[in-house]
Design goal:
The chain is α+β, with helices and mostly antiparallel strands. The protein is 31% helix and 22% strand.
Length: 124
């Protein structure tokens, strides 16, 4: 994960990626062994991240304040799992939950939650 930043509008921003010896892996590398599901990987990753960070992400008007986006789109839009596993992540956190956390503790919490969600992509 790159060094997170705090935006003036209250969003916490970070770039997160997964690498191996050859560089950044694709979503396909961490997807189900039986083959990628029909929905794009972020459609599966989003609920995993929100579940892993349950209670930390602010809810506003019934919507969790979390945004995930690809850094680079797939070369072939019909094969979304062949995109690099590098994402932009933005969160607004529950103020009471993060008020006593140091910035590195918050970053570690997010990284652990995202890692857990990425590991969950392997399940069908």
């Amino acid at each position: 994960m790159g060094r997170p930043s705090d935006a003036p509008d209250g969003w916490w921003l970070a770039v997160i990626w997964v690498t191996d010896a050859d560089g950044v892996v694709s979503f396909r590398d961490v997807g189900p062994a039986a083959g990628p599901p029909p929905e794009p990987p972020l459609a599966r990753l989003g609920p995993g991240v929100s579940g892993a960070l349950s209670g930390f992400i602010l809810e506003d008007a019934g919507r969790l304040q979390m945004r995930l986006g690809l850094i680079a789109p797939p070369d072939d839009p019909t094969r979304p799992w062949r995109a690099p596993l590098a994402i932009r992540a933005a969160f607004r956190f529950e103020p009471a939950r993060v008020a006593t956390m140091r910035p590195n503790e918050l970053a570690e919490t997010v990284l652990t939650g995202v890692a857990r969600a990425i590991e969950g992509l392997h399940r069908p």
